[in-house]
Amino acid sequence: MRKLSRVLVTTAASLVVGASAALAADLPARQYAPAPVYNPAPLFTWSGFYAGVNGGYGWSNRNQTYLGSADTLSSKGSNGGFVGGGQIGYNYQLVPGTGLVVGLETDLQYADLGNKTTYVGGSPAALSGSSSGGNYFGTVRGRLGYAFDRFLVYGTGGFAYGDVGSRSWGPLAGNRGTEVGYTLGGGLEYALTNNWTAKVEALYVSLGNGSKNTSALGTPAISSTSSGRDDFGVVRAGLNYKF
Predict the structure, then answer these.
(1) Among 66, 73, 166, 232, which residue has the fewest nearby CB atoms (within 10 Å)?
(2) CA-CA distance, 202 to 56, in Å (whole number)?
(3) Are 44 and 34 in contact (CB under 8 A)?
(4) Residues 106 and 87: beta-carbon distance below 8 Å
(5) CA proximity to 238, closest of 154, 134, 147, 165
């Protein structure tokens, strides 16, 4: 009798376990949410064309010598004023994110440098002098910098040209016209968005170094030539749109 009871209990237990397994197999499997996919933000790159505007302050330093049939004048002067204009350029970043950036930029500027001058030497008639500041300059420069993601530190230099002032004195009046020279400088630039960047830049510009003829006025007429160099510095802030 005991043996029969054990068999019945074992059989019943087996049936219960089998039924539970079958029921579990019929139940839908638990659904697990897929792991989120990590998409890192693309690295910012300085590569591409850009165009923008700028404005700032410039100050001049003139050193001129005038040689005439009646007078020899030496003039030295300095003054400053508003400088502003626009620029276009292209950058190429060797490795996106952090790394070397090379580029080329050209700009055209209005420059109201004032150009007030004091003359020393010559006859009393020649000592009277004045100058005006009609004026522009432009540059074509290479740029070489290093980018820390959206922050760029760079140096720049190249060709410069412009007319930073006419001048007249005593019986003579003259306009030196467009001169050529060089420029050197550097700056800091920050990418506000993927398209807009802001910069602060400083340049040293040196124009001229040759002789220029001036018109002869007065009675009797006096012929003359002038030689020298126009040097000036510029500090400006700019805003660029990167295409």
Answers:
(1) 166
(2) 10
(3) no
(4) yes
(5) 154
